[in-house]
Amino acid sequence: ANMKKAIGMVAGGSGITPMFQLIRKILSDPRDRTEVRLLFANRSPADILMKEELDAYATIYPNFKVYYTVDEAGEDWAGFSGHINKAMAAAVLPPPGDDHLVLVCGPPPMVSAISGPKTKDYKQGELKGMLKD
Prior knowledge:
By secondary structure, the protein is of the alpha/beta class. The chain contains four helices and five strands. The chain has helices at residues 16-28, 51-60, 86-92, 108-115, and strands spanning 6-12, 35-42, 64-70, 80-81, 100-105. Strand 1 (6-12), helix 1 and strand 2 form a beta-alpha-beta unit. The longest helix is centred in the N-terminal third of the chain and has 13 residues, at 16-28.
């Protein structure tokens, strides 16, 4: 509990799965005041996994915020549109700091663009991408 003051999460598609587990763990502990901000990318609004649950959490828990971006936004779409970019990340993720953490999970091209490519054994390689900037 309270490992960091704020955790930013960037998820793409099914990359929401491990993020959701951590979100649920943090929010289920009333002593945990960690601020969690999720930026969740998908192809279309219909592709957003667990949207009802995430929206409910954002309504119930003041320390959780969720932001969506989709590649194929319709006229009635209220979230971000397009691939995750620096401006989008800067607007919603916690700023760099010792008490902040950013986690990334999604398709390899997305992970590479945001935080740099993984090593051959799937560990975080050298920090590159928009998080380094």
